[in-house]
Every structure is written in structure tokens, then in C-alpha cells.
């Protein structure tokens, strides 16, 4: 087990308004989320002395402009002008989960006392995934000429292989879409709060890239979320009940740029991250009371459930049936609605929900008697990370 | 059936790793990067052998027969160039001689409904311009009906 388990905690959490288009620059969303998280902790902005983020824009063919389409650490430093800043780090290879992990490490090393991590997401005007113009250079030279555009198609090819190899039906995925949308109705910050989804909506929706229909894909939005992290000792003196970090892991399986469609990449990526997390925390999948699993595309949840060890390979579409993933089920899943409910903000919102469930602060969607709260914060293949938060330090 | 003559495809830009692949395709030959130390084929080309770390890599011809490893049927028309052929099949092929080396392509000459995981395919070549010819795939001649 990890000797530093439960020595770091998530304290406050914060949100900006989530909207479909960008009425204000993204920096303003990020600032709103950070202020909200700091206030939730009962701290002042000037108390913050650590900053970390993952600022990537996952859209293709759009300019990255700091403050407008991404919010870098530098941009946040400019806005906050923190008098006691002692540490900052912007991560690349591990998505937003990597920013949370590196902030935990900085806190453990005494490099800062109160770290803020944010994820800000821009929704560019026009088509989200713009294929290259007349030419396809780099890894795209082997995919774009055949009409392979963004991540949706890349994930769709793995999904057809999954379905046909395991003799499964995409019709079963409706349960995930409907259950998550039901959970969304308990999350006022979510884009689809107040918008129900029916079985008919799902089956009548347009196909995007078979086997993904519209409701298998998260909707691009503009918004930001943020958390305050600190040591367990300091967290106990703050306003919220802390969510203690019991263990974490990261994907150890490599990818080859331009090689797409490999189902094995998802499964080995997820398994490698989860193995570290189970070993470090001392827990196993059967100990988990509630799970958040990244769902930029619905199939990521299926690969996650299997590669993290919640069920056997090929069985996840059956595993999610019969109320198992409802708030009162055996494994309540994506209880905040997931990205399918909140809109595309990436995995920090999954981490936030994992923390809220562990600290008993999830309001009307709180699962009863939670101690062990699991998070898979990105698609297992793409810079995946996993976490366990607990209510009771051990 | 998708009429690909209506599509202006993005044209690949060869680089120092990939140029031999495109030069071979122009000659109507499918050549993949092969490790001269352990014999491993890989695609897309990489700096080292992903099996044994050797840097002794050369391009060698393969027969171009394989099976559909995975596929998607594209309906979204975000890229207007491909809109005339929607819905179309984009496939991932695993070649007999290069297991694990996954190649993208389209399934030509048949309706998109013919795309199924495991179906036998063979390489064919689609010239894009004087410099670039695209390896593509069609169902293998002796594909048994399923």
C-alpha cells in the first residue's frame, strides 16, 4: 500500500456557468470556477500558493489562444496575482488527472499548502473537428485521406470491434445514456439539467459514426470547473468534509500516433492505471461504493468497467442493466450525469464528483453510506488516470 | 454505394519516416516498415522497432491480404468534402503478414453494409495525383458469404 494514502485531500470544488457558446472569454469561466472552489473551502484567493492545469483544446483545426480557447497556468497567474505563490505546473502527458496527481505530489513534498487545479474548456465556432485542408501531414497522413476525422471515429472503430467480437448489441447502451441523464437532473451545474432524455430520443437520434449516435457523444460546451487540494491535516480545518486521496494511477501502455482502432490499447491502458490504484489503496473493485468513469463517448465507460476490473471483458453492456448503476444500485455510476450530462469539460468533473460522494456532499444525488469512491478520469487509451477517494482515513 | 470520385481527399504529406511507404504505393506495392533485427512489421512507421528497440528498420513488400479488424460507418458531414459519400465505411485492416500493424482504408466497390469485423480484404491502389497513390481495400475475391 501507498505510504502517503489519505495524506492529501480534495476540499472545495467550484463551477462556472456551462453554456453552448462563448459569450465571455474562457479565462472568465476559469476564474469564476477557481473563485467558487476557494470560497467553498472557506479560504481567500490570497491563501492559494499552488496552481496546476491541463490546458489542451481537444478540437482539431482551431487556434489555441491563451485566455480565449485555453487557460494556461500563466494566464491564471496573471489573473490571480497570488502574493504567496510557491509552486505551479502545467501537465501534458496525463490529461487533467495528471494535474491533480502532480498537485498531490507537490503538497506531499511541501512545495505548497493550498493548490488549485482547474479545467477550462472552449467550444470553438464552426465544426469542432476540422480535418486538415488539402494536405494531411504527420500521423494524419494515414487516417485523414480515408475520412477519419476526430476522436469520435477513432473510438467508433474500436467499438464495432468490441460489439462484434463479444456478440454484443449497441441497443444496450441506451441504459447508460438514460441513467446518466436521470442523474443529471440532480446536478444544477450540468448543461442538460432540466432536459430529460427518453428511450425514443436515443433510438431516433441521428447516427454520428456508427455505432455512436448523437447521445453516445458528449456535447461540446464552454465552461470550467476547479478544486482546492491540500494536506489532510489542513483540510480538516477547512469548511467542507475532506475527501481523502487513497491512491491513484496512470496509464502505462503506450500509443502509436496514427494507429487507430486498437481495442487492446483501451483495455491495457485502463488495466495498467487501475492496477496501480488498487495496489496503492489496498482496495479492489468489490470494495467500491460509487464510481465515476470518463464518458466523452459512451463506449469509454464500457472499456473502463472492464479494464478497471468491475466486470469481465465483454460483459459491461450487461453489467450496466437492471438498475445496477442507479443511485441506489450496486454500483452507482456517473452520479453527476457524466460528460454526457454536464457537457464536455473532461475528467476534472468526474474527480469532483468522486470527491463529493466520498465527503457526503453530493446533495440529492448522494449515494448512501459511501466510503470508497472510484474515479476513471479520462478514456483509458488517452492519457488515462484513476483515483480512489475515501471518507474514512485508514 | 459511395461514389468516391466525388471526394477530394486530403493528400498525404510524406516525411522522413513515411516516404518509402508512399513511394512504394506509387509503384503499386504495399511496403511496411520491418525490423531487420527481429523481423517485426509495424505501421505507422516509427523511430524504433516497438518490439525489440532496434533502430535497424527497412521497408519490405507485403502481399496486402488481411481482415477487417474494426470499422465505422460515417454519417456526420462535418467535413464537407466527404459529405457526398455519406454514409461510408472507414475500416481498419490487420494484414496477415503484420499482426498488430493496423492500416486505415475505405471499403471500396461494395455497399457500406458489407463492412464486418473479420471479413477478408485485399489491398488495391487509388491514385490521388502524380505523386501520391493511396493504398485502399476491397473485399477479397474469394470472400465466403456470411
Q: Can you tell me about this structure?
A:
The complex is a heterodimer of chains A (394) and B (146). Chain A contains twelve helices and twelve strands. By secondary structure, chain A is of the alpha/beta class. Chain A has one domain: Thiolase/Chalcone synthase (Peroxisomal Thiolase, Chain A, domain 1), CATH 3.40.47. In chain A, the strands form two sheets. Chain A has a nine-stranded mixed beta sheet, with helices on both faces. Chain A has a two-stranded antiparallel sheet with strand order 6-7. Chain B has 146 residues and is mainly beta. Chain B has one domain. In chain B, 40% of the residues are buried. Chains A and B meet through strand 5, helix 4 and strand 6 of A and strand 1, strand 5, strand 6 and strand 7 of B.
Largest interface pair = A-B, 48 and 44 residues
What is the distance, rounded to the nearest whole angstrom, between the alpha carbons of the first and last residues of chain A?
Answer: 11 Å
Name the strands of the widest sheet of chain B in spatial order: 5-6-7-9-8
The CATH topology of chain A, please? Peroxisomal Thiolase, Chain A, domain 1
The general outline of chain B is globular
Number of domains of chain A: 1
| Beta-strand percent range of chain B | 35-45%
The side-by-side strand order for the widest beta sheet of chain A comes to 3-2-4-8-1-9-12-11-10
Strand portion of chain A:
15-25%
Give me the secondary-structure topology.
The complex is a heterodimer of chains A (394) and B (146).
Chain A: E1 8-15, H1 26-41, E2 50-53, H2 73-80, E3 87-90, H3 95-108, E4 114-121, E5 135-136, H4 151-165, H5 174-184, H6 199-204, E6 207-210, E7 212-213, E8 223-231, H7 232-235, E9 243-250, H8 263-281, E10 290-293, H9 298-307, H10 316-319, H11 338-342, H12 348-359, E11 372-376, E12 385-390
Parallel strand pairs in A: 2-3, 2-4, 10-11
Antiparallel strand pairs in A: 1-8, 1-9, 4-8, 6-7, 9-12, 11-12
Chain B: E1 11-12, H1 19-26, E2 31-35, E3 41-42, E4 57-61, E5 65-74, E6 88-95, E7 102-108, E8 120-127, E9 133-139
Parallel strand pairs in B: 7-9
Antiparallel strand pairs in B: 2-3, 2-4, 5-6, 5-8, 6-7, 8-9
Amino acid at each position: 500500500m501507498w505510504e502517503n494514502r489519505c495524506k492529501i485531500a480534495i476540499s472545495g470544488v467550484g463551477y462556472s456557468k456551462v453554456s453552448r457558446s462563448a459569450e465571455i472569454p474562457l479565462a472568465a469561466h476559469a476564474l469564476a470556477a477557481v473563485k467558487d472552489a476557494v470560497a467553498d473551502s472557506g479560504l481567500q484567493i490570497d491563501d492559494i500558493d499552488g496552481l496546476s492545469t491541463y490546458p489542451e483544446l481537444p478540437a482539431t483545426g482551431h487556434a489555441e489562444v491563451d485566455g480565449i480557447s485555453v487557460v494556461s497556468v500563466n494566464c491564471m497567474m496573471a489573473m490571480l496575482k497570488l502574493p504567496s505563490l510557491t509552486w505551479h505546473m502545467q501537465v501534458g502527458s496525463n490529461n487533467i488527472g495528471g494535474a491533480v496527481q502532480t498537485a498531490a505530489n507537490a503538497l506531499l513534498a511541501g512545495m505548497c499548502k493550498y493548490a488549485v487545479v482547474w479545467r477550462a474548456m472552449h467550444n470553438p465556432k464552426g465544426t469542432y473537428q476540422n480535418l486538415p485542408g488539402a494536405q494531411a501531414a504527420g500521423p494524419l497522413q494515414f487516417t485523414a485521406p480515408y475520412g477519419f476525422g476526430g476522436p469520435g471515429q477513432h473510438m467508433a472503430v474500436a467499438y464495432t470491434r468490441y460489439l462484434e467480437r463479444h456478440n454484443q448489441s449497441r441497443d444496450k447502451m441506451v441504459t447508460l445514456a438514460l441513467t446518466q441523464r436521470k442523474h443529471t437532473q440532480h446536478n444544477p451545474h450540468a448543461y442538460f439539467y432540466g432536459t430529460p432524455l427518453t428511450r425514443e430520443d436515443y433510438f431516433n437520434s441521428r447516427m454520428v459514426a456508427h455505432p455512436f449516435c448523437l447521445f453516445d457523444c458528449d456535447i461540446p460546451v464552454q465552461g470550467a470547473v476547479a478544486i482546492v487540494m491540500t494536506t489532510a491535516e489542513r483540510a480538516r480545518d477547512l469548511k467542507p468534509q475532506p475527501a481523502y486521496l487513497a491512491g491513484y494511477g496512470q496509464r502505462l501502455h503506450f500509443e502509436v500516433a496514427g494507429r487507430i482502432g486498437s481495442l487492446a490499447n483501451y483495455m491495457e491502458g485502463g488495466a495498467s492505471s487501475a492496477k496501480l490504484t488498487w495496489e496503492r489503496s489496498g482496495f479492489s473493485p468489490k470494495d467500491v461504493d460509487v464510481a465515476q468513469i470518463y464518458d466523452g463517448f459512451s463506449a469509454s465507460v464500457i472499456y473502463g468497467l472492464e479494464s478497471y476490473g468491475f466486470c469481465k471483458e465483454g460483459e459491461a453492456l450487461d453489467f450496466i442493466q437492471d438498475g445496477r448503476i442507479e443511485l441506489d444500485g450496486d454500483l452507482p455510476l456517473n452520479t453527476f450525469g457524466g460528460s454526457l450530462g454536464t457537457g464536455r469539460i473532461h475528467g476534472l468533473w468526474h474527480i469532483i464528483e468522486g470527491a463529493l460522494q466520498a465527503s457526503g456532499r453530493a446533495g440529492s444525488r448522494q449515494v448512501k453510506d459511501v466510503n470508497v469512491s472510484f474515479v476513471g478520469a479520462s478514456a483509458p487509451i488517452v492519457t488515462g488516470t484513476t483515483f480512489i477517494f475515501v471518507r474514512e482515513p485508514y | 454505394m459511395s461514389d468516391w470520385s466525388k471526394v477530394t481527399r486530403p493528400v498525404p504529406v510524406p516525411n522522413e519516416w513515411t516516404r518509402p511507404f508512399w513511394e512504394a504505393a506509387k509503384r503499386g506495392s504495399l511496403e511496411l516498415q520491418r525490423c531487420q533485427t527481429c523481423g517485426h512489421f509495424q505501421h505507422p512507421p516509427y523511430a524504433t522497432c516497438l518490439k525489440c528497440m532496434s533502430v535497424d528498420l527497412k521497408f519490405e513488400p507485403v502481399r496486402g491480404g488481411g481482415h477487417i479488424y474494426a470499422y465505422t460507418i460515417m454519417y456526420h458531414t462535418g467535413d464537407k468534402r466527404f459529405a457526398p459519400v455519406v454514409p461510408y465505411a472507414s475500416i481498419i485492416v490487420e494484414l496477415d503478414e503484420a499482426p498488430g500493424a493496423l492500416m486505415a482504408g475505405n471499403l471500396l466497390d461494395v455497399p457500406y453494409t458489407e463492412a464486418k469485423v473479420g471479413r477478408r480484404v485485399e489491398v488495391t491502389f487509388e491514385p490521388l495525383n502524380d505523386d501520391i497513390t493511396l493504398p485502399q481495400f476491397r473485399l477479397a475475391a474469394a470472400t465466403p458469404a456470411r
